[in-house]
Structures are given as C-alpha cells and as structure tokens.
Design goal:
The longest helix is centred in the C-terminal third of the chain and has 11 residues, at 52-62. A hairpin with a 5-residue loop joins strand 1 (2-8) and strand 2 (14-20). The N and C termini lie far apart (38 Å). The protein has two domains: 1-39, no CATH class; 42-83, no CATH class. The chain is an alpha+beta fold. The protein has a two-stranded antiparallel ribbon. The protein has helices at 24-28, 52-62, 72-79; strands at 2-8, 14-20.
Length: 83
C-alpha cells in the first residue's frame, strides 16, 4: 500500500514523497511529517519548536525593526506566529 509523507528539501521547500506502509514509522522518526501543515513556520531545524533564536532570525530576515532588542512575543506577533 502506498502512503505519502512530507519533508523539506535542501531549498527548504516542502515536498511530497511516496513510500510503502512498512517504512512510515522509520521515516517519521527521521524528519518526515504526515501533513505539510505539521511543519512550523520559522522552525529552521525542524525540531517542532520555534526557538527565540529562530524567531529573531526570522524577524531579521523579514526586516522587522528592532529585531535584536524587541520582546519575543512582539516579534512573534509581527511575524504572525501563533503563541
């Protein structure tokens, strides 16, 4: 039986990959996700959490003013991340 899992490629794009059912558990343990929605925006290392450093980097990349000194909650709000 064919299944589909998702991962990020070297460019950071989410790609859909076909796999067989017996490989699903192993693939999920190695960074694949069951849905593209499972990837968190701003999670640079795909560990399932967006750290303060990742929030600051995203804010810097987005051109948010005072990205170095603003509160993390303010940056998260500016970036549209859910708390």
């Amino acid at each position: 039986m064919a299944c589909y899992l998702y991962k990020k490629d070297e460019n950071g794009d989410i790609v859909k990959e076909e796999c067989i059912a017996q490989d699903v558990a192993n693939m999920l343990n190695h960074g694949y996700k069951s849905s593209p929605d499972d990837f968190l925006e701003g999670d640079l290392n795909d560990d399932g959490e967006v750290t303060n450093e990742e929030v600051r980097q995203a804010a810097k990349d987005a051109g948010v003013d005072k990205w170095e000194t603003a509160r993390i909650s303010t940056l998260r709000r500016e970036l549209g991340y859910d708390d």
